[in-house]
Design goal:
Shape: elongated
Low-confidence stretches: 213-221
Oligomer: single chain
Mean pLDDT: 82
Number of helices: 10
Number of strands: 2
Order of helices and strands: HHHHHHHHEEHH
Helix content: over 70%
Strand content: under 5%
Largest sheet: 2 strands, antiparallel
Strand order of the largest sheet: 1-2
Amino acid sequence: MAEFAAIVDEAYEIDEMLTSSNEKAEDFNARGNAFGFEPASYPLIDMTRTEFAPFFKLWKMFDSYKRSKEEWLNGSLLKQDGAAVEKKVEDWWVGAYRLMKTFGDDYPEAKSAAGELREQTDAFKKIVPIISTLATPALRERHWTNISYELEEEIEPDDDLTLQYLMDLDVVGHWEKIENICVVAEKEFSLEKALKGMQEEWQEIEFDVTKTVAETNQKVAKAKADGAKNVTEYDAVTNKLKAQLERRIENKKAETVQEVSKIKAEIIKLTASKHLRKK
């Protein structure tokens, strides 16, 4: 780690020196221009900066990855932006591959370092979905209770919760079940938002009772156009919610029946065992 930090520091120092040299050359030309001199060219500076660019890009990118990874692992998980994390990791992963091609066989050590960055970002890409899935307002207390059950540890969804803590609890090994919990949470969250939107829209809708049908003596309520066109959409959302609840109820019933059957079987075995002992 100390060696890596030293290399990164040296790369930044070289870049600063090249930038300073270029600024001095530009300043010198500006002074000469004031006296009517033709601007001088400094091909060595331009060539050196061009040759150094991919090396500086490699170490700058590697440094950014390591610093960001530390923050993502040990910073507050619930404050992370999953989409932004995914984009950064993908950019580094692609960038490392391109640098490997750039260095080729001419710079084997630099190519190896780019390959190491590629491997590390590739490994972290597998963890990114955990950040994206858990850092969401869709997860409520009941969902975190279920996640705690899967990890066999009480999880407090607060600012102190970190990805590293969950990694230490082997969240990856339990991810399939935890991901299912999160999928259900997202569906519930979407329905909640849809229902809330319906409530807000219906508050602004006005109904006018304008006709009486003589044949049936019934009054017909005619909604204004902005409310009437939404009725079908609301019915669809309501039916979807109802169907989801019915499926969950049926699943719970099936689970309960299975549990009862197991209990009955144990009772029968126990009764039979006692009966044999009496004989």
